[in-house]
Amino acid sequence: MITYMKIMDNKTGNSIFLRNSTISLIAYILSTLLALGFNITIARLLGPEGSGSLTILLLFSVTTGLFINFGLGQAAVYFFGKKKYSSIEISSNLFSASWIIGLPILFILAISLPLYRDEIFHDIPDYVLLSVIFLTPLILGKIFYEYIFAGMQNFLWSSGANIIELSIRIQLVFAFLPFNLGFDGVVLAIVISTIITAIVSWNKIRQLSGGLRININQKLLSNFTKYGLSSYTSVLITYLNLRLDQFLISFFLTLDQLGIYMVAVIVAELPMK
Predict the structure, then answer these.
(1) Cβ count near 261 (within 10 Å)
(2) pTM above 0.90, yes or no
């Protein structure tokens, strides 16, 4: 009887693993295709300079989020597995941390914009830069909620949030075409899709965890930071190793050359995906 139960448990475990692996694979392929479609669309609509401008904006936004997340997202996955804290505690603290960390960084980036805008962003208008900087807490929150879904072993939403965002972004880009908004329209599509996806994702986490509130547990965040910093550095270095070249091209060359380079990078990375 005991042996039979062990066999059934193993079959159940294998079934769950196979299901999660299949969901992750399908979601990854779909996300890759959507990202490729978005990049091709942008390259066709905006040309090399517009594509380069958008590349450096998104790169700056994502890099900022990675710099200020301090490994809290990775730690969330670990502590979900340890079951030391409840889902609502982990989710609420990371939701709160995204704003408590993100808002001051947003303010610092905004007031210091004149110090770095010309070297990195060249002729991109200030209102465009500020609209992307405004997203800082949401970008940090995106890093957190993706890890929260992974910690909950909800692999459909872990990858699905990115699919939702890319789908909305592409639809908005085409919806704005009749208004001839050009580069501004694409940036607006990015801002709107980021906000909508954040609202949908955090609301889903609220449903799954049984609630979501502004709450900071200092002991929890301290434990998260201690654990997260061990992986934070390696993740950041790996990312910079892959993307630092784009910052250097933007710094030393022009945005249209960055746009051409990015098309080559996208094509080159396809076999690796």
Answers:
(1) 19
(2) no
